[in-house]
Amino acid sequence: EPEVTQTPSHQVTQMGQEVILRCVPISNHLYFYWYRQILGQKVEFLVSFYNNEISEKSEIFDDQFSVERPDGSNFTLKIRSTKLEDSAMYFCASRTGGHQPQHFGDGTRLSIL
Amino acid sequence: AQSVTQPDIHITVSEGASLELRCNYSYGATPYLFWYVQSPGQGLQLLLKYFSGDTLVQGIKGFEAEFKRSQSSFNLRKPSVHWSDAAEYFCAVIPIQGAQKLVFGQGTRLTINP
């Protein structure tokens, strides 16, 4: 069964550094998402992306965050200047369209030192 | 406030026992409803979904959920749990038709006693 794949599984970064989290959505999917889960807290929506532009974003998704689909297969989340509070598990998800559900990757654990 | 509530943070059941995990939502209109499961070190796997129609929905791994509009609930059930069902279970909604983001509950951690 096709899967959403995320790399790396664990990223350790110094505070203030830029980090890029990578995702390969399922190939025929059209809608792409990033969520995060801070340890012990709920999974939170960050951003949705469709037709090469952001379709919805949360309050969390401020100017430090950006997303990009640089080619036909990858979907990336960039954090420009990381803060300690960015430490979390980041999940990528994708879906086809209509009423089809979102399929999630295994996540990238981001640790900011 | 609009939210998704999973009242039980942690539940322990014996292997072979029945299971019910609770989920309540507070939105004006009936949202789209989902249950996801997260095994340790894994991503979120969809168990089942409800958009409309039959209020009892069947999912994977022998799970089912029942939508009750009068109670704003979407409880997850399984008649007989297996040790491999130990995981974190998340109820989630899409609050508005046409919107895209999933809003998650806090999660319920399920432990299975042998």
> What is Rg of chain A?
13 Å
Number of strands of chain A: 11
Major β-sheet profile of chain A: 7 strands, mixed
Low-confidence stretches of chain A: none
User: Which percent band covers the strand fraction of chain A?
Assistant: over 45%
Return Rg of chain B in Å. 14 Å
Range of strand content of chain B: over 45%
Largest sheet of chain B: 6 strands, mixed
Order of helices and strands of chain A: EEEEEEEEEEE
What is the CA-CA span between the terminal residues of chain B? 40 Å
Q: Which regions of chain B are unreliable across 5 or more consecutive residues at pLDDT < 50? A: none
Q: What is the straight-line distance between the termini of chain A? A: 37 Å
Shape of chain B: globular
**Helical element count of chain B?**
0
Task: Count interface residues per chain for the largest interface.
Answer: A-B, 25 and 22 residues
Structural category of chain B is mainly beta
What assembly state would you assign to the polypeptide chains in this entry? heterodimer
Total number of helices of chain A: 0
Q: Can you give the mean pLDDT of chain B?
A: 92
Describe the structure.
The complex is a heterodimer of chains A (113) and B (114). Chain A is mainly β and 113 residues long. In chain A, 0% of the residues lie in helices and 50% in strands. In chain A, strand 5 and strand 6 (53-57) form a beta hairpin. The mean pLDDT of chain A is 94. In chain B, strands 2, 5, 6, 10, 11 and 12 form a six-stranded mixed beta sheet that branches. A four-stranded antiparallel beta sheet of chain B has the order 3-9-8-7, with no helix packed on it. Chain B has a two-stranded antiparallel ribbon with strand order 1-4. The radius of gyration of chain B is 14 Å and the shape is globular. Helix content of chain B is 0%, strand content 51%. Chains A and B meet through strand 4, strand 5 and strand 10 of A and strand 5, strand 6 and strand 11 of B.
